[in-house]
Amino acid sequence: MSKAKFDKAVAIVQSLPKEGPIQPTQEEQLYFYKYYKQATVGDVNTSRPGMLDFVGKAKWDAWKGVEGTSKEEAYEKYVEKLLEILKRADTEEAKKYIAEIEAA
């Protein structure tokens, strides 16, 4: 999987409107988060957030769970998950995004 496809997928995920027709679930958002961090930072390099930071802990735990994943594999998993969500949405906008990713 190329970095260009990954970069295009990241741009699409970040541009999705909160109330739009294509809405990743919270679980899917965590999936994107953990593979984005693994692809861009590598293995977890911070300590686990405190007891009352529930969102921070969930994100940290998700990222920690993919420790050891290569940058290239993280790119691939991120892009494949987005393509899966876009195909499931089956809207004109989703088809446009799929074409953009495939052309990258």
From TrEMBL:
Write down the PROSITE patterns for this protein, in alphabetical order. Answer: ACB_2
Q: Where is the ACB domain?
A: 2-91
Query: Domain of life here?
Result: Eukaryota
Q: Alphabetically list the UniProt keywords.
A: Lipid-binding
Pfam families, alphabetized: ACBP
Query: GO: which molecular function terms?
Result: fatty-acyl-CoA binding
GO biological process terms, semicolon-separated: fatty acid metabolic process
Protein family membership: Belongs to the ACBP family.
Q: What is this protein called?
A: Acyl-CoA-binding protein
Species whose genome carries this gene: Trametes coccinea (strain BRFM310) (Pycnoporus coccineus)
